[in-house]
Amino acid sequence: MYLKRTQIKRLLNILDVLSKYSPTYVWQQLISGVLIIADWQTNILQSGKQRVYLTIVLFTIALCLVVTSATQHAIQIKLPQPSVSWLPMFLFSWIFVSAIYTIWVDTYLRGLIFLGMFGLGVALLFLVNGAPDVAMTQVLVETLIVIIVVLNLYRQPHLPNIVTEEKKVCLINMTIAISIGISITLLLLTITHQNFDPEIGDYFLKNSVSLAHGRNVVNAILVDFRALDTLGEVIVVATASLGIYGLLRPHKKGKKR
Q1: C-beta atoms surrounding 219 within 10 Å
Q2: Which tens digits make up the pLDDT trace of 65-78?
Q3: According to Swiss-Prot or TrEMBL, what is its membrane topology (predicted)?
C-alpha cells in the first residue's frame, strides 16, 4: 500500500469530489430548483389582481381549444344557407350595439345598464328560436345581476368611475376576448354539424309523461330525471344569495362589519 500511496491518494481525492454529489446533495439541489421555479411562477401568476387571473384562465382555454381542434382535425365547418329575417337581425344588432356601448361607457352604472340590455337581447333571441324556458332563465339572471350590482355600487362610499387602462392592457384584453369568441364559435359550429345519437332524446320524449308526469320535457328533465343535480344548483344559488344578503344588509351604527 505504501508503494501505491500515490494512486490511492488520487483515488481518495476523486471519491472526495464525488461525495459532494451524493443523493442527499442532488435531492437538496432539486428542491432548491423547484423553489426557485415556484417563486418565479408566483411572481408572474399571483399578481393579486382578478383581471390577471381571468386573463390567464381565458387565454389558456382559448389556446387549448385551438390546439386541440387543430391537432385532432376536429374543425369541420359547413355554414348553413343564410335565411335573412328582420327580427333576428334586429336582435343581433341590439346585442352588438349593447356590447360596444358596454365597453365604451365611462361609468360602471352606464356599463351595467347596457350589459342588462345585452342580456335582454340574448333572452329575446332565445325566445325567437323556440327556447322560452332558457329565455326566462336568462331574464331572471340578468335582472338579479343588475339589482345586486346596483345595490353594491350605491353602497360604496363613492361611486367609482371606470379606470382607463393602458393601451397595452386594452390590446391584450381585446386579443384574448377575440380569441375566446373565435374558439367558442368554431367549437359550436363543429358540434352542430356532428351526427348525434337521438336515443337519449327519444327516451325523454317518450317517458316524460309516463315517468315524470310532465308534458314539458325540459322541465321534466330538470325537476325529475336530474332532480338531484337541480337541487344542488338551487342550493348553490341560495347559499350565494345568503352571502350577498349578508354583505348588503344594513348594519347598525357602532357595530363593526
Answers
A1: 13
A2: 777 777 766 666 66
A3: Multi-pass membrane protein
Largest CA distance in the chain: 105
Amino acid at 144: L
Contact status, residue 87 vs residue 125, Cβ threshold 8 Å: no
Q: Which of 113, 116, 124 is nearest to 91 (CA)?
A: 124
DSSP string, 166-194: PHHHHHHHHHHHHHHHHHHHHHHHHHHTS
pLDDT tens column, 211-221: 888 888 888 88
H or E stretch covering 100: helix 86-104
Q: Is 216 helix (H, G, I), strand (E, B) or coil?
A: coil
Distance CA 184, CA 243 (A): 32
Residues near 193 by beta carbon (within 8 Å), at least 6 away in sequence: 76, 77, 78
- Picking from 207, 208, 226, the residue whose alpha carbon sits closest to that of residue 217 is 208
Beta bridge partners of 161: 107
C-alpha cell at 47: 399578481
Q: How far apart are CA 254 and CA 164, in angstroms?
A: 37
- Residues lower than pLDDT 70 in the chain: 1-5, 8, 12, 14-22, 72-84, 156-165, 248-257
Task: State the Cα–Cα distance between residues 181 and 187, nearest whole angstrom.
Answer: 10
Q: Distance between alpha carbon 162 and the CA centroid of its chain, in Å?
A: 22
